């Protein structure tokens, strides 16, 4: 009889609850016991689980602490989960898991609880941590055995750790998948907010500079710009080609005003850069619009409203179908199978090596730093150049 654990990690994203629900319900329907690891990598200590295999679903947090943080789930545990935003089993950006001692503790907690498989739902940071944990597993087990923290039998039984990654992030910044769980809901939130700003901008004939999240990724900003008809968008992946981007922006804004527009909307990704890779600041944009065009300008930073609210239908579906694939991947895994990441490519659920996705995601950041933007886009989406 299989035993499955589920965990969410890193910044919450709408649709994580759909993942947990789906792992629980599908896992149980496949004859598994399912455990939720509360508070992500932080909480995995102390629970006793009998049986030969435990699959943990991690939504970033409780793996290090264990104890009460690991709870057995049944059908009723996830009632109503589909429509709830965020993650009901909690999440954290777990600092101890970033240290080897923290990961050693997490490994001991897993082994002591009989868990040899984890489903981790989180962003690139969480999945990088998961991949590191998997790659170190051998050494961690040997170290635990050497220090007599686990028995020889446990060391033999838990020789391999299966980790399956589900990409939960509003940023849509993970390579090798077209879309991440939570990104579309967040985009809806941004569009609603920009629509609201639009009416007041129109009333006063004002300009608004709106900052959106996304960390080093401009997907939310770019898509929001298209979906709301913004006048100008700044994203990290395509910095303005000229030093004097202020003039380029003002020319566009002026032209739109001359055509009769009563409002000016500039959307800025929080990671936006100029061509020298210096951050482009919303207050500076405001000053430029005020001083050069005489526009009455306000700044709106959308902040964490972008992560809130009920998941849209797409994220409920994405979380549900990808989690079914994640459970199937755990059940099908062998010691030789590389840890998979469940993605979505060309409208199909895909399974790719987690290691490769993590490596490519880091290479994207390097390519942006070296201003090779075409390479960055190709690494994030290998079909980009096709
Ligand atoms: O990665 C998701 C994200 O919302 C980013 O877009 C943002 O930069 C960051 O997390 C904010 O993190 P925190 O919630 O820890 O402030």
TrEMBL record:
Family: Belongs to the phosphofructokinase type A (PFKA) family. ATP-dependent PFK group I subfamily. Eukaryotic two domain clade "E" sub-subfamily. Belongs to the phosphofructokinase type A (PFKA) family. ATP-dependent PFK group I subfamily. Eukaryotic two domain clade 'E' sub-subfamily.
Positions of ATP binding: 11, 93-94, 123-126
Localization (cell): Cytoplasm
Name of the protein in question: ATP-dependent 6-phosphofructokinase
Gene name, Swiss-Prot/TrEMBL: ABSGL_15174.1 scaffold 15182
Region N-terminal catalytic PFK domain 1, residue ranges: 1-386
Residue positions binding Mg(2+): 124
Residues engaged in binding substrate: 169-171, 206, 213-215, 270, 298, 304-307
